[in-house]
Design a protein that fits this description.
10 strands; six-stranded antiparallel beta sheet; four-stranded antiparallel beta sheet
Length: 254
């Protein structure tokens, strides 16, 4: 069971929602988000380890993060805030990730993210929210890059896949670019990212397909632009990952 209730926000580009679920889900994040557990306890895997948290726990999510729920102690309620993409150019340009993505209640490093959530929950006015968003974005940049989460070959492989998602990619090409033999690369990639390179590439392609559909491109034009052989291959993966067809997804945003 998954229920999602949108929370009105007065800042353009800021999206917020309250989610309650008892399902164990697997996926890849497509945007920067700050999530706070409001009720219940949960365990989840991301970046090579299992994290656990209860009410007040802050979790930072970034594009490309693969997450896997491990366990819930009954239904868990989250408040999720997706930060405006227009404010995140510095983060995207540098291509780094937050060194520590998880903060327990009372951790001073998570204070600005807690303030953002409090402002959203209180229905704060636009100016108050704008300040809270700016401080949260700056906190993202301060936290990033202290210790790499992924080894250099895996980081190079991830960048290669992101930059060439519309092309035909071979494992030999990927391993050559990463500077690691293909057997060790596959093992390291799965261990650090949470899925093998081909599955990660599929998620990247679906994320790009969603962007194209939201921009107004017809579903029939999307497949080859994101590296799929044909429309049927796009439909199959899109339905599996998003839960609907590309055409229906595009129509709901037209």
């Amino acid at each position: 069971m998954l229920s999602i209730d949108a929370i009105p926000a007065s800042v353009p580009g800021l999206r917020a929602a309250r989610l309650t679920t008892d399902e164990l889900r697997v996926g890849m994040k497509e945007f920067h988000a700050v999530v706070r557990i409001e009720r219940g306890r949960s365990e989840w895997w991301v970046r090579g380890r299992v994290w656990t948290g209860g009410p007040g726990t802050i979790h930072l999510k970034q594009p490309g993060d693969v997450y896997r729920d491990v366990a819930h102690d009954g239904p868990v309620t989250y408040q999720a805030v997706a930060l405006p993409e227009s404010d995140l150019q510095r983060i995207r340009d540098e291509g780094k990730v937050v060194a520590h993505p998880h903060f327990k209640p009372g951790d001073e490093r998570g204070l600005l993210f807690q303030r953002l959530h409090d402002a959203v929950a209180a229905g704060a006015d636009r100016f108050t929210l704008e300040v809270a968003v700016a401080e949260a974005v700056e906190a993202f940049t301060v936290l990033r890059g202290a210790t790499p989460d992924h080894t250099r070959p895996v980081r190079r492989a991830m960048a290669y896949l992101r930059e060439r998602l519309g092309e035909v990619i071979t494992l030999d090409d990927l391993s050559t670019h990463a500077g690691y033999d293909k057997f060790h690369l596959c093992r390291a990639f799965r261990a650090q990212i949470g899925m093998p390179p081909h599955a990660y590439l599929t998620h990247l392609r679906i994320a790009r397909a969603k962007e194209l559909l939201e921009s107004g491109l017809r579903a029939s034009e999307v497949a080859t632009r994101v590296g799929f052989y044909d429309q049927s291959q796009l439909n199959r993966h899109f339905r599996r990952i998003v839960g609907t067809t590309p055409a229906r997804f595009g129509n709901t945003r037209g």
